[in-house]
Amino acid sequence: MLRNLQDTVKLHNGVQMPGFGLGVFKVEEGEELVQAVKSAIAFGYRSIDTAAIYGNEQGVGQAIREALEENNLRREELFVTSKVWNADQGYDSTLAAYETSLSKLGLDSLDLYLIHWPVEGKFKETWRALETLYKAGRVKAIGVSNFHVHHLEELLKDAEIKPMVNQVEFHPRLSQQALRDYTKAQGIQLEAWSPLMQGGLLDNETLVELAAKHGKSVTQIILRWDLQHGVVTIPKSTKAHRIAENASIYDFELSGEDMARIDALNEDRRVGPDPDNFDF
Questions:
Q1: In CATH, what number is assigned to the domain containing residue 117?
Q2: Binding site annotation covers 12?
Q3: ∠ at Cα 194 (197, 188), nearest 5°?
Q4: Which residue of the set 45, 54, 113, 182 is catalytic?
Q5: CA dist 111 to 179, 195, 231, Å?
């Protein structure tokens, strides 16, 4: 069990990945973004998750450089993730997209590079490019995002290297039990995006009750649930007090009964697109 914000999970290739991080989806380039990333690192976050399509890799890179200096940290102490966008999928275009992301971030390498969505007819070639980058030592770990079990099965038919991570929509209304069972059996680490269902669970009665019981916020209850399920989580926030609050989940534990009550909220309900049916 992870006991503090710097604790890590061990990926199947031996790389240590922080169990908690900051996501920056829908945070535009600018001072708010830079300050959010810097606040998170100053508070103790060591994982920052961005993507080419977010259009904010430059600001994330600037924030990282400033935060390293201000907090007297080395680059190796941070875990930085980005993702190849759908329009860039394919072998050569993925290799080029990786260089573009590095250039915008101002980094020599990434800790984790993901295929953002399973684009039919392209994701295998894209994966081959990620394997090339990995084998060349250009990235510490490679993985996928938004892959269902059948996408993973299809990928594994030809893959030389098994994905280390699958980042998917995961929250109490979408608890992804079958996918969790499959990825666990395969040694693929599950990571949650939209862990708070974009604020859609804040007034849920069960969660409000559990929050009162533990003297915590609903947000903290949900993120603790992620943690106890062994799911890496990357909630987004731009406000320093929220960034601190989100990560203050290591001083209490949900009981088996608490966990079961939250598990029972599952409705297989998404707030994002279904990986079997997206048009971008």
A1: 3.20.20.100
A2: no
A3: 130
A4: 54
A5: 24, 22, 18
Is 54 in the active site? Answer: yes
Domain that holds residue 58: 8-263
Within-domain flag for 279:
no
Question: What b/e readout covers 251-275, taking b as 16+ CB neighbours within 10 angstroms?
Answer: eeebeeebbebbeebeeeeeeeeeb
Within 10 A of 103 (CB to CB), how many other CB atoms are there?
12
CA 73 to chain centre: 22
Cα–Cα distances (Å) from 157 to 81, 115, 161, in that order, read 25, 17, 11
Residues 106-117 have pLDDT tens digits of: 999 999 999 999
**Structure pTM?**
0.97
Task: Please count the other Cβ atoms lying within 10 Å of the Cβ belonging to residue 193.
Answer: 20
Total domains present in the chain: 1
The C-alpha atoms of residue 101 and residue 164 are separated, in whole angstroms, by 20
**Does 268 fall in a domain?**
no
For residue 274, is it within any domain? Answer: no
Q: Is residue 115 part of a domain?
A: yes
Q: CA-to-CA distance for 168 and 249, rounded, in angstroms?
A: 21
Per-residue pLDDT of 201-251, as tens digits, reads 999 999 999 999 999 999 999 999 999 999 999 999 999 999 999 999 999
